[in-house]
Amino acid sequence: MSNRSLRFNRIEDMPEGMRALFLKSTGTAGQAEPPPPAEPTKRAKYGNTITVVDGIRFDSKKEARYYEQLKVRRQAGEVHFWLRQVPVHLPGGTKYVLDFLVFLRSGEVQFVDVKGRETKEFRIKKREVEHHYPIRILLA
């Protein structure tokens, strides 16, 4: 049997489930597997640090801080509730994802995007969303 048809060059590169099936089919399932190699830490494109708060993964520290502020505002009675990572579909198959959709007690709805750095792509998509939908995106 030739390994040329396999997508992976080594057994260690296979996903865990595929590796188990492969080892089972070759009759080596009972043997101990070597531990997978440690993955090197990869620097984020814009220098953000992934942060976990209350078991929720945030793409940046700034986004996590905004979440903490929302919790305080909810306890103060200003915010009713919020949604995270809300997609907005645009013509041409483009999708813009809002970080927070905040519903205030006053009945107002805020569309919030937490940005550390405004990119060219962000400005274009923001402009397109505001053109196609009657909303204004707030930057936090």
Lay out the secondary structure.
Elements: H1 16-26, E1 51-53, E2 56-58, H2 61-75, E3 79-89, E4 95-104, E5 109-113, H3 120-132, E6 137-139
Parallel strand pairs: 5-6
Antiparallel strand pairs: 1-2, 3-4, 4-5
Structure description:
This protein is an alpha+beta fold. The protein has 3 helices and 6 strands. It has helices at residues 16-26, 61-75, 120-132, and strands at 51-53, 56-58, 79-89, 95-104, 109-113, 137-139. A 4-stranded mixed β-sheet has the order 3-4-5-6. Strands 1-2 form a two-stranded antiparallel ribbon. It is elongated, with a radius of gyration of 22 Å. 9% of the residues are buried. The mean pLDDT is 85.
Brief write-up:
With 140 residues, this protein is α+β, with helices and mostly antiparallel strands.
Structural class: alpha+beta
Query: How many domains is the backbone divided into?
Result: 2
CATH fold-level assignment of the largest domain: Trna Endonuclease, Chain: A, domain 1
Name of the CATH architecture of the largest domain: 3-Layer(aba) Sandwich
* Helix content bin: 25-40%
Query: How many DSSP helices?
Result: 3
Strand order of the largest sheet: 3-4-5-6
The level-1 CATH class of the largest domain: Alpha Beta
Order of helices and strands: HEEHEEEHE
Largest pleated sheet:
4 strands, mixed
Q: Tell me the radius of gyration.
A: 22 Å
Give the overall silhouette: elongated
**Share in β-strands:** 25-35%
Our measurement of the CA-to-CA distance between the termini, rounded to an integer number of angstroms, reads: 57 Å
Mean pLDDT metric: 85
What is the count of β-strands? 6
Low-pLDDT stretches: none
